[in-house]
Amino acid sequence: MKRRLTMGVAAAAVGTLLAACGAGGPGSGGGKISGGKLTLGVLTDLSGVYADLAGNGAVAAVQMAADDFQKKYGDKAVTKKIDVIKADHQNKPEVANTQAREMYERKGADALFDVPTSSAALAVQTVAAQQKKLYFNTGAATTELAGKSCNAYTYEWAYDSYMLAHGTGTQVTQQGGKNWYLIYPDYAFGQDMQAKFTPAIESAGGRVVAKDPTPFPSDNYSTFLLKAPTLNPKPDVLGALQAGGDLANVVKQYDQFKVKDKGVQLAIGLLFDSDIRAIGADKLAGTMFTTAWFWNLDDRSRAWAQRFQQRTGQLPTFDQAADYSAATAYLEAVQKAGTDKAESVSKVLNGMTFDDFFARNATVRTADHRVTHDAYLAKVKAPAQATQDGDYTELVRTIPAAQAFDKPSPDCHLG
Amino acid sequence: MILGLMRRLGDRPAWMRWGLLAVGLAVAAILPWVLYPPVATDILCWGLFAVAFDLLLGHAGLLSFGHAAFWGGSAYVTGLIALHSGLPFYVAVLGGAVAAAVLALPIGYLAVRRSGIYFAMITLAFAQMVYFVANQWSAVTGGENGLQGIPRNLPGVDLSDAFTFYYAALPVVLLGLAAARRIVRSPFGRVTAAIRDNTDRVRALGYPADRYKLTVFTASAFLSGLAGGLFAVNHGFASLQEVDWTTSGKVVVMTVLGGIGTLWGSLVGAAAIVRLEDWLSTAGFEQTDLVTGGVFIVVVLLFRQGLWGTATRLLRPRPPAPPTPDPAEPADPDRTPHLTKR
């Protein structure tokens, strides 16, 4: 009897609480710039396999964009205070989910940038839509971001797996690498890369002999490297679709196991300058790859890269350059809209055409928020040809913006 | 005067129990006003999980090292139900908990035949199998990417605000806690406690010990499933982390930190760990595990009975009063010696 009474009282107390607190909670400010300042959040890999291609360099790029914006507008700027905050997502989607929520909700971020690792980017994209705040992806390659999972709050600024596959996959196959063995990291990025490379190779007249998912992240690729020459028919090309620190491991072990001497060439899906730095240009000399940008492209790029180098001591990767480009475009859009309300900023951005040091002949597509711009088919310079330290890339040809990216996906419905 | 009053807390007369209940409910009610609401909800989820775990470890003497299978299994099932059916999240969470209990039946059936380290290893092995399935069956679970965008459905109520969601989740957790307490205090609970202390004697008395163990194992899995499902809905996300062995380890740490066999101590342990991790990560400190690990070592070395166990021992009159057996009301399980035999 006594116990039943206890339960009754407990239930009643909870019921009252639910009723009393249902209407509480934090509300949103009504001012033009919420909180009187802009907060740009950089959610990135600060400690793992993608820390070199994004990481603190990405934070520096966004900070640079904020500084340049303030210098440009001075007193006319829409706000005098722009904070740049950073967080580490450890390349894990569940951490990215928590951190993104935390940055938007608790630290007041108006927009998030970067986010390498496709699975993490997909998580951030979901949170962005829930929070009704903007997210500019530069680090993740999966086409799902502008496809099945697309939403009105996410923009894809730099590159995607379609761009990489249709540059590298097509070109290498046409040059005689008919039979491919693909190894890809087993998460959103790798799965999507594999799904884009296979048709690109086949439509160029090649064939995928075998494909294997590899653990992510991983230190040991010996199983796959030893398997490559034993496949029947023997592949001409080993397509390594790993990225960052994982890719460095694949290439080093490809070298150690002397797979090249057994007649299997290496093709790389995604290559950043930071990877070439880590692997060594001598090991990669002549390797074809597709990139969204490289610092030695022309004078405009070199000028920006030099300023970035003065700030960080290192030359930028295309991801970091894209972060600057996206952050600048965001700030300009806020300036124009006069508010940091996501929907209003979005209206300025959608359909915008622009041309900056990073994105050439660029358009922000209204249908799926994909930014299309010129991409570059390139190859790694032999160290002897390099004009200076960090000069790794030789342009083979420019892929025009209209061809570099796929048409808007029919699966994408911006809600 | 105050000390005397506090000492009497340990004896817990009826009015004191009411007081504790009132304090507990008050803390639960104001938590999201004090803490960042998603963290407050995390504390609820992990708290229920730790209590469910203590039901097994503290009150049946079974150290499972595979409880992530039930927490995470339910997280996935809850997520799938919520994503594909659009039913209210309460139904989804209940579905997840039932799935966890169903999963626990075969695992428990095999595992309870062994005890100690063997029991722990068998449960760990099964949990790793669940992990493998979740990783490989990516068409359903999303593999490495996890199950994303789990909605918080509840007809007529907008739960998108974490603050509101806390109060929607609270009754589920309170019901779970009440169920755990009811089990511990029931005649059934007394038998499991006896099994913990001397299995052979319980068998000699004619109780089917294995069936009792299986039942408490399944009940623990069900409550863990409730917690895991809520957690998934809270984060809108179910990932491999939920079925990872480190999650099984984390709940052990929480329970031991709070005090094995104290039931409510597990709540304190869970709150301490979640709060500590949140505080460290917002302070920008990267090596969170290093600190929680250090705290764990200190607690195990200095306070063998955990935070709650140590607190109640200090507040109890010394030497402990001889237990006065009351035929109508079974003795407070908190007063029985904890895990004399493990």
UniProtKB/TrEMBL annotation, chain A:
Keyword Signal recorded: yes
Pfam families found in the cross-reference section: Peripla_BP_6 (PF13458)
Gene3D superfamilies: 3.40.50.2300
Alphabetical list of InterPro entries matching this protein: BCAA_transport, Leu-bd, Peripla_BP_I
Signal recorded as keyword: yes
Domain of life, source organism: Bacteria
Signal peptide start and end residues: 1-19
Keyword terms: Signal
Sequence ranges assigned to domain Leucine-binding protein in this UniProt record: 38-381
Database matches in PANTHER family: LEUCINE-SPECIFIC-BINDING PROTEIN, PERIPLASMIC BINDING PROTEIN OF ABC TRANSPORTER FOR NATURAL AMINO ACIDS
Family affiliation: Belongs to the leucine-binding protein family.
Protein name: Branched-chain amino acid ABC transporter substrate-binding protein
Organism: Actinacidiphila cocklensis
TrEMBL record, chain B:
Molecular-function annotations in GO: branched-chain amino acid transmembrane transporter activity
GO cellular component labels: plasma membrane
Comp. bias regions, Basic and acidic residues: 332-342
Metal-binding as UniProt keyword: no
Transmembrane segments: 15-36, 43-69, 89-110, 117-134, 163-180, 214-233, 253-276
One of the Pfam families matching this protein, by short name: BPD_transp_2
Region called Disordered, residue ranges: 314-342
Membrane topology qualifier: Multi-pass membrane protein
InterPro entries: ABC_transp_permease, LivM-like
Name used for this protein in its record: Amino acid/amide ABC transporter membrane protein 2 (HAAT family)
Native source organism of the sequence: Actinacidiphila cocklensis
